[in-house]
Amino acid sequence: MSTTVPAPGVARDLVVAYCYPPYVDTSAIVAAKRVREHGRPVDVLQNALGSLRRTDPGLERIAGDLVVRRHEVPSRSHFASWGAMSRFVELGLQQALAWDREGEGYERVYSRAQFVASHLLAARLVLQRPDLRWTAEFSDPLSLDVTGATRRSAAGEGVLLRRLAEGVRAAGFEPPTSNNAFEWVEVLPYALAHELVFTNERQRDLMVSRVADERLRARILERATVSPHPTLPREFYAMASPELELEPDRVHLGYFGNFYASRGMETVLDALRGLPDALRDRLVLHVFAGSRKELDAQVRERGLGRWVRTRPFVGYLDFLALSTRMDVLLVNDAVTRGTDLQVNPYLPSKLSDYLGSGRPVWGIVEEGSPMSTLDLAHRSPVGHVTAAVQVLARIAAGASGAAGR
Q: What domain of life does the UniProt record list for this protein's source (predicted)?
């Protein structure tokens, strides 16, 4: 499916983002924010993700005014299958070259992974059009999972892999000796991209440390840019008017997002239960999440129903608006302690949205993480219930009502 929407000028920049608005996904949102940050008209190549992701029309407000053409590649949606990724590259390359021939030609291409097929298509295009300036962004280490184990998916032999290997050799480097697709999608930008974007220094350093070739390591560092997830202008926080009744005499904490094995809410719930009644009665924790069954069970088990309100996900613009109505916004680090990761390389992208709200942020941080280096209004260590109790007590004692209601 191709769509054309009003945009200034002609696009000389191509965005390759396997996941892009209107599909709901963190990586899609960050890619659109980058487009807005750069402020140049773009064409967008993405995959048709209707089978795996819901849509949110509000996401198109982020950078829709800059998108000249957008094409959803009709390849099978899969985030690790080489066959699906190869088909995305094949069909996406055809569309990119067709668009390129229609005008003066592209000057720049930007790709973002996660999801990794984005870098495969961008690399294939740059090998076809070596005059293109390629900026490749990494959301996280691609070849490592959250436990530090190697993430694997077999890259099948064929024309695509041969062409990519030839391109890496022509650039003066050796292609991966393994057939691990996740290793390939790191090495290709390392060897071919003009700019490499990392969201934080720890992510960059961890990824560089895994590269054995000293010359390739030097190239990465020479072309590396550290750029945290962008924060949208303040007007985006007033584009929606969601209804939410908030008691004016209580202090409202907000958490927006999913839960994972590495990011749970047990510490906060235990801290709430440990507060003196007089302080706890001043607080309400609002949790907006997709899957709430386990959280609801934990709330019932602790008898916290009066103080914790679980709610479904809201649209992106509603989320931004609601974030301004909270007294404190809660974000927690991924927990890497006890894993094989040398450092915590993960910077929660949600933090960039929180920072634009103008509200105080409480970070539950892991020592040495990217978030642990930031100046937050409140902080406590991951898994440290006593410290979380102290933060909640300060919040309850120091705030008399919620954010400008």
A: Bacteria
Nearest in space to 223 (alpha carbons), one of 164, 138, 129 = 138
Do 196 and 136 touch, CB atoms closer than 8 A?
yes
Residue 337: C-alpha distances to residues 33, 292, 334, 341, 386 (Å): 31, 25, 9, 8, 19
Please give the CATH superfamily to which domain 234-398 belongs.
Answer: Glycogen Phosphorylase B; (3.40.50.2000)
- In whole angstroms, how large is the CA radius of gyration of the chain? 22
Q: E strands of 57-153, at which residues?
A: 67-73, 108-113, 133-138
- pLDDT band of residue 293 (cuts 50, 70, 90) is confident
Tokens of 86: 């190869």
pLDDT confidence bin for 5, thresholds 50/70/90: very low
What confidence tier does 103 reach under pLDDT thresholds 50, 70, 90?
Answer: confident
pTM attached to this predicted model: 0.94
Multiple choice CATH, 2-226, 3.90.230.10, 3.40.50.2000, 1.10.760.10, 3.30.390.50: 3.40.50.2000
Distance between CA 290 and CA 274 in Å, rounded? 27
Locate 260 and state its tokens. 């994972």
Q: What is the residue-averaged pLDDT of the chain?
A: 93
pLDDT digit string (tens) for 19-62?
999 999 999 999 999 999 999 999 999 999 999 999 999 999 99
Matching CATH topology for 2-226 and 234-398? yes
Q: Is residue 261 helix, strand or coil? A: coil
Q: How far apart are CA 355 and CA 207, in angstroms?
A: 27
Adjacent-strand bridge partners of 292: none
Q: Look up residue 40 and give its two tokens.
A: 């140049």
**Residue 259: per-residue pLDDT:** 72
Segment among 1-10, 140-149, 289-298, 317-326 with least mean pLDDT: 1-10
Report the DSSP beta bridge partners of residue 180.
Answer: 154
The order of strands in the sheet holding 251-256 is 308-311, 283-288, 251-256, 328-332, 361-365, 378-381
Q: Which pLDDT does position 403 carry in this prediction?
A: 54
Residue 32 phi, psi (nearest 5): -65, -40
Spell out the domain ranges in the chain. 2-226, 234-398
Give pLDDT, residue 263.
61
Give which of 358, 394, 345, 24 is closest to 208, Cα–Cα.
345
